[in-house]
Amino acid sequence: MQIFRCMLIWVCLLISSAPFADDPMISKVLVLKSERKMQLLAGESVAREYRISLGDNPIGHKQQQGDERTPEGHYLIDFRNPQSRYHRSLHITYPNAVDKQNAKTRGVSPGGDIFIHGLPNGMGWMESAFVGRDWTDGCIAVTNAEIEEIWRLVKNGTPIEIRP
């Protein structure tokens, strides 16, 4: 019986992350911090657009651990975490080599653990308290329904550009 349950869970997870026939092929994620928008691009076309929340200190590029800024620049989505403290999360490859060197020069840690994620686990019912506010420690947050769609559409290795 236990094996059957495990297989059922595995099949459900596979189905929930499987692409739909009409899903666009996402070639890039574009974040426009000042507009609080994230766009999923299929070639040059905007396939999806989301309203986002950023770090508590959203203006400027992330300089060091604890500054609560969302980084700016060119990165990749390199892995996903279905067991995150937030409803699903996609990891952004911050810090890159330049970020690390700048932090080293300043004698600080660049920080890390920057993700696109949903709401804190168990808080989905309070969506209205989060949407339209900057509340993360430097991550990019969307609603739980939106992260489900992003999770399905954005593959590991997808470039992400974060603009001021």
From TrEMBL:
Pathway the protein takes part in: Cell wall biogenesis; peptidoglycan biosynthesis
Domain L,D-TPase catalytic per the UniProt entry, residue ranges: 27-163
Gene Ontology biological-process entries: cell wall organization; peptidoglycan biosynthetic process; regulation of cell shape
Family matches, as InterPro entries: LD_TPept_cat_dom, Transpep_catalytic_dom
Keyword Heme attached: no
Annotated active site: 117 (proton donor/acceptor), 139 (nucleophile)
Molecular function as annotated in GO: carboxypeptidase activity; transferase activity
SUPFAM superfamilies: L,D-transpeptidase catalytic domain-like (SSF141523)
Keyword Protein transport: no
Record key words, sorted: Cell shape, Cell wall biogenesis/degradation, Peptidoglycan synthesis, Signal, Transferase
Signal peptide: 1-21
PANTHER family referenced in this protein's UniProt entry, alphabetically: L,D-TRANSPEPTIDASE YAFK-RELATED (PTHR36699:SF1), LD-TRANSPEPTIDASE (PTHR36699)
Entry's family note: Belongs to the YkuD family.
Name of the protein described by the UniProt record: L,D-transpeptidase-like protein
Upper taxonomic lineage: Bacteria, Pseudomonadati, Pseudomonadota, Gammaproteobacteria, Pseudomonadales
